[in-house]
Amino acid sequence: MAKQKLVFATGNANKTREFKEILDPEKYEVLSMKDAGIEADIVEDGKTFEENALIKARTVAKLTDAVVVADDSGLVVDALNGEPGIYSARYLGEDTPYEIKNQKIIERLSDVPKEKRTARFVCAMAAVLPDGEEISVTGVMEGYIGYEAAGENGFGYDPIFYVDQYGTSTANITPEQKNEISHRGKALRGIRDALEQRFGM
């Protein structure tokens, strides 16, 4: 059976790597936009993670006959009224290093006790099929904001996002452990299952 070609609508190499780790390489040929030679100006003006994921997928789907998958994800911190939320990538400015973003969040929570440091990573993933059909799935990983950044394995907000299951940050666990519990892993498995059902794989 021919592999299902998927274009992942992101410029983020870390996300593309996680995406490939979860999908069966025997079944899928995963291409980033760069791999597929696609350049698109995507305006993420949705009000929710799901709206932004669909905007990205629809924009890129107009430029290819492959299945297009896009995600929009971010960190939601309860004590900060849900910030940075859908603005996670743009928090404190798009080009601001995550070390600075992470430090700022820790500083803003300096007087907040552990039980009120609850947070979650949310990932909405959308697929647009060549016939125009749309599928969307949302995955959530619950945790809390630590008192310091720790770990080298993750990216983005991983060093400050702690999970009780491992008693450390998601940047301090293996990629396999992270994929098992992560918001993106859950959303991607949901999209994968829906596509495999749809294509009879």
Structure report:
The chain is of the alpha/beta class and 201 residues long. The chain has one domain: Maf protein (Alpha-Beta Complex), CATH 3.90.950.10. 29% of the residues lie in helices and 24% in strands. It is built from 5 helices and 7 strands. Strands 2-1-3-4-5-6-7 form a 7-stranded mixed β-sheet. Strand 4 and strand 5 form a beta hairpin. Helix 4 packs across helix 5. It is globular. The termini are close together. The mean pLDDT is 92.
Shape: globular
Oligomer: single chain
> Biggest sheet: strands side by side, in what order?
2-1-3-4-5-6-7
Give the % helix: 25-40%
Main pleated-sheet profile: 7 strands, mixed
Taking the alpha carbons of the first and last residues, their distance comes to 9 Å
* CATH structural fold name: Maf protein
Write the H/E string, N to C. Answer: EHEHEHEEEEHH
Number of separate strands: 7
Low-pLDDT regions: none
Which CATH architecture?
Alpha-Beta Complex
